[in-house]
Amino acid sequence: MKKYLKWAKLVVLIGLSACNSEERNNVDPVRTMISEFETGTEGWTADYALYNRADTTKIAFKMERDSLPAVIDSLKWSLRMEGNNVGDSIFMFLKKKIVGLNPDKTYNVSFDINLATNYPDLPSGSGKTINLKAGASPTEPVKTPTDKFYYNLSIKKGLWDQDGAEMSVLGDFTNTATRSVYALINRNSNAKNITVKPNSKGIIWVCIGEDTRYKGKTVFYYDNIKVTLTEQ
After folding, report:
1. What is the number of alpha carbons within 13 Å of residue 76 lying toward its C-beta?
2. 41 three-class SS
3. Total structural domains in the chain?
4. H or E segment at 117?
5. Which residues fall within 8 angstroms of residue 23, CB to CB, at 6 or more apart?
6. What band does 8 get if pLDDT is binned at 50, 70 and 90?
7. Which residue, 162, 172, 101, 166, is CA-closest to 136?
């Protein structure tokens, strides 16, 4: 009887292993996710890093679902981000967990993002000091204390105007207006996509953020975000 039970357990284990292998092989090799925020935040959460803890209340960081500015289309929803940089820099970011990937594969992650900014493209305009970055990581992007005064970011985003191992610069915040008025701009990763391997549970985190040295308050709106994962 004991031999029979051992044999039965072995058959079940082999069957489960085969099922898991089959499920991994059946993972869609291309996955596209489009967030337009018409019904909610769609799994995106927000945080901020690269700041002195003493400045927390002065930064007054906020992310909320809101309509686009009236000059664009107040009937459309977006994610509104705002924060006040009172130090050397600040990084305000969105993140989203993506599950059900094949942990044995690597993925090419591309981004196509429409956002509304109010920085005209002037030679010395403030918008040129604000960069949009996007990337992906097998671990969750979180702010981490480097000492008792400062918060850094857990993933490798690169310096202010440079690419990092896990994030790329998609462009600055300038729009095509001739004065300070909100207008939509498009930023995409093109040839600067990020390659990432999911963790053992088939999870990656995508991250999009504003990396800025601009001193003062920044308010902008994510109109829509398209993320495409292609299995390599």
Report:
1. 17
2. coil
3. 1
4. strand 107-117
5. none
6. very low
7. 166
pLDDT tens digits for 71-120? Answer: 999 999 999 999 999 988 899 999 999 999 999 999 999 999 999 999 99
The pairing of strands 119-120 and 174-175 is parallel
Break the chain down into helix, strand, coil percent, rounded to 5: 15, 45, 40
**What pLDDT digit, counting tens, does each position of 9-64 carry?**
433 343 434 444 434 444 568 899 999 999 999 999 999 999 999 999 999 999 99
Contact 84, 182 (CB under 8 A): no
Query: Domain containing 89: what range?
Result: 29-231
Using DSSP's 3-state secondary structure scheme, residue 55 falls into: helix
Instruction: Give the CATH number, domain containing residue 74.
Output: 2.60.120
Alpha helices by DSSP H, 145-230: none
Burial of residue 93 (CB within 10 Å: 0-12, 13-18, 19+) is: buried
